[in-house]
Specification:
The structure is a single chain. The strands form six sheets. The protein has a nine-stranded antiparallel β-sheet with strand order 21-22-23-24-1-2-27-26-25, covered by helices on one side. The chain has a four-stranded antiparallel β-sheet with strand order 3-4-5-6, with no helix packed on it. A four-stranded antiparallel β-sheet has the order 7-8-9-10, with no helix packed on it. The protein has helices spanning about 20-30, 245-250, 365; strands at about 35-40, 40-50, 65, 75, 80-85, 90-95, 100-105, 110-115, 125-130, 140-145, 150-160, 165-170, 175-180, 180-185, 190-195, 205-210, 215-220, 225-235, 255-265, 275, 285-290, 295-305, 310-315, 325-330, 340-345, 350-355, 370-380. It contains three helices and 27 strands. It is mainly beta.
Length: about 375
């Protein structure tokens, strides 16, 4: 495994402005604007914000946003699915039964979902379909694991010709507890993108993306390029230089990489190239991309451990993700380290982002009944 080249653009202090204080971000969180830092100036950008129906016994990490072919928007939360037919201004909600995966929507309204089945280390990815907007589901297939591996789903995406892509991780890594630390012993894992042309019943042509790669999302640019954003997290490996953790800012956690990375495909997911680091701060971990007109791509990502308070932040590229601007949008404020988000594009390059946050504290126990999801309608600044 070769080391990734760290990007020139540092993501700890984008826009030439220090990260706003908790008080400033919390005021923004409840106001009709988001914050934008560029060229040494922090400014307010008007935004519409709507609180989604509550989903209790969940966390700020439970969000997927899907735009159906008829422009209906679905927010896939922990236990419910929220639906909007007016671009995210108003929402209704219904339960999604026992399904706990991610889904896409075909042109005829069928939901196709990925979900993990079984107990670790015997998990595999199964495929479900729903004809009633995710209220009930039936199993229609599965994606087998290579021998000696287990599997987990990352994302699913519908191409314009109704081909479905599914990003599936297959892993066999082994860790052992040594005192207070979990120490890597052997194995690894790779992310593959599978294809289905029959509505999710069968999956073929797995294309390897990268190793040690998991959750994220993908978007299709107007030129036809796929831009995927992936979490890259791996332990110290035997061939790593001893100062790698210092180089990546991981503070001797045993995990030198816990960063947002980007990868591209020019052939609708048949091959993937240029896997590279986007975020330079350890704990800027999980991102989700959305493509606008021309060549603009937005990535909304979390920031878990600073600098500044945790929350969702957006980076922008004007060349389909090849390079990134020295600017940042602050979307929300949370006390929990894992604030996740999903975004889709509406008319006139309006972005709809749904972000999960909590003001209850920074532990799984306190946020499970105290998580809010806000729909934010916003335009990037020209």
């Amino acid at each position: 495994m070769s080391l990734m080249v760290e990007p020139i653009l540092k993501t700890d202090r984008l826009g030439g402005v220090d990260v706003p204080s908790a008080d400033t971000l919390k005021t923004m969180h409840y106001s009709s604007y988001i914050l934008h830092a560029r060229a040494g100036t922090l400014s307010e950008v008007p935004a519409e914000k709507v609180l989604l129906p509550p989903d209790r016994k969940t966390s700020p990490q439970a969000i997927q946003l899907v735009k159906a072919p008829d422009d209906t928007i679905y927010a896939n939360l922990g236990n419910i699915i929220c639906k909007s037919s007016d671009g995210g201004r108003t929402w209704a909600a219904h339960n999604k039964g026992s399904f706990r995966g991610v889904f896409e929507v075909l042109k005829d309204g069928t939901f196709i979902g990925l979900e993990s089945e079984g107990e670790h280390p015997n998990t595999k990815v199964v495929i479900h379909s729903s004809m009633d907007e995710g209220r009930t589901w039936r199993k229609i297939g599965e994606i087998p694991n290579p021998p000696g591996h287990w599997g987990g789903g990352s994302w699913i995406f519908r191409l314009p010709d109704e081909t479905l892509l599914a990003a599936i991780g297959h892993a066999n890594h082994i860790f052992e507890q040594e005192g207070p630390e979990l120490v890597y012993k052997s194995g690894g894992g790779d992310l593959f993108v599978y294809r289905s042309t029959d509505g999710g019943q069968t999956w073929t042509d797995p294309a390897r993306v990268h190793d040690w790669t998991s959750e994220g999302g993908v978007t299709l640019t107007p030129s036809g390029k796929l831009v995927a954003v992936q979490r890259y997290q791996r332990p110290m490996l035997p061939d790593d230089p001893p100062d790698l953790e210092q180089r990546t800012g991981s503070a001797n956690t045993g995990w030198p990489y816990k960063h947002v990375c980007v990868v591209e495909s020019d052939d609708w997911g048949r091959t993937w190239r240029d896997f590279r680091q986007l975020a330079t701060v350890f704990g800027q971990t999980r991102g989700d991309p959305v493509a606008l007109s021309e060549s603009t791509v937005i990535v909304v990502h979390d920031t878990r451990y600073g600098p500044g308070p945790p929350g969702s932040r957006a980076m922008i590229s004007r060349d389909e993700g090849s390079t990134w601007e020295d600017e940042v949008y602050y979307l929300d404020y949370t006390t929990f380290t894992g604030s996740y988000a999903g975004s889709v594009t509406l008319e006139d390059d309006l972005i709809l982002s749904v972000v999960g946050s909590s003001q209850a504290g920074n532990s799984w126990d306190v946020v499970r009944d105290n998580t809010d999801f806000y729909a934010i309608r916003w335009h990037p600044v020209e």
